[in-house]
Amino acid sequence: MIYEAVFHTGGLLHIVENKRTGYLAQPFHTQDLAAGIRWVLEDPQRRVGLGHAARQRAERLWAPERVAGLYAEVYGQVIERSAQKGTSHFRYAEPIAGLGR
After folding, report:
1. Could you tell me if 54 and 40 are in contact, meaning their C-beta atoms sit under 8 angstroms apart?
2. Residue 100's pLDDT is what?
3. What is the spatial distance between Cα 97 and Cα 22, in angstroms, rounded to a whole number?
4. DSSP 3-61
5. How far apart are CA 100 and CA 25, in angstroms?
6. What is the distance between the alpha carbons of residues 6 and 33, in angstroms, rounded to a whole number?
7. What backbone phi and psi angles, to 5 degrees, belong to 43?
8. Among 26, 28, 27, 3, which residue's Cα sits nearest to residue 15?
9. Rounded to whole angstroms, how far apart are CA atoms 95 and 40?
10. For 3-42, what is each residue's pLDDT tens digit?
């Protein structure tokens, strides 16, 4: 699903870059949303460009390898902090070297 014109609220403002990957309308201003939809649709090249930019951004930010690496970093930090506090309930208190980096 491509979000080309959305309200500037919640998680959408972290997904859509205004006028780069879509249009962010002011929250709950239906006229601004309508203007954004018009802006997207009035130029077919712009619409295609927004779609390509949105896809590239999504592939860069949410690639499975990247997301897995971020989770591995967080888990490694939790294990390391637990080991430093002496409260580790994990079998292995040391993070795996290079995992997620």
Report:
1. no
2. 42
3. 39
4. -SEEES-TTHHHHPPBTTTBEEEPTT-HHHHHHHHHHHHT-HHHHHHHHHHHHHHHHHH
5. 36
6. 7
7. -130, 105
8. 3
9. 47
10. 577 777 777 878 899 999 999 999 999 999 999 999 999 9
